[in-house]
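Model it.
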Amino acid sequence: MKGYLGVDVGSVTTKFAVLDQEDELVADLYLRTLGRPVQIVQQGLQHLARQLPAGVEVIGVGVTGSARRLTGIVVGADVVKNEITAHAVAATSVVPDLHTVLEIGGQDSKLILLDDGIVTDFAMNSVCAAGTGSFLDQQAYRLNLPVEEIGPLALHSQQPVRIAGRCTVFAESDMIHKQQMGHRLEDILYGLCQALARNYLNNLALGKELKSPVVFQGGVAANAGMVRAFEETLKMPVFVPPHYEVMGAIGAAMLAHEYLSHNGGDTCFKGFEASEMDYATRSFECQGCPNLCEVVEIRVARQVLARWGGRCGKWDT
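Modeled.
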């Protein structure tokens, strides 16, 4: 069997997906990035090599996510695409007449608007962690709860309290205040879900018309409380696709399939043996002009594989 590999490396999690030639999911993997994207990508390749059926040949690779350039060098990517494109392609494969994609990851959130399968508008919040997965992780840790339990508990709420969700610091302070006043935990948690949904829409959807069908993807889509909060706020159904957590990786694999089908040629994939290579990264400050660009370099042994980061392209290779 021949397949296409997609890798989505975010700041908090790293996702892998392998599709067959009909773009059906064959295998997927979801790992914590832990601040070590290269090592986690290599670890993921090792897991996939054991998980895939014998005889599967990877004939195309696409990468996306905040560490896409670095990942593209490590695995040998044929296509390197931004997260907006990857998530839109994956979502429209599930809901062809899709109009709105809500995507919340570990460190940022995205809103994508489509018409006839084409992205017409989008917005990203990559500055503040309010309303992202990392904030929910932080609150779960503070409450001594597994983050997976926030959603089911929130669904038991009968009288949710209003939490100030515009800022992570204020939201946490408000949650503590509500606890000290004696409010039930489930009411506080669902109040938090409502606050995060309001914050998301106020930041990303202001002045935009959100139309049904609506798809919610990304790791936070696992939180049933967030799904309910979005449905109540938007006053329309919100659909969570079966593989919501790896949709970016699925989209990257589909883009690789499309690219190689149209352009032909052999894949640049380095094989699962790339998990054994000794990659080293470093950065340095270019002194060539007053911009003082920080240039990133990745090597294997003494060979420079790639450099990027300079504004003028002097160091790019």
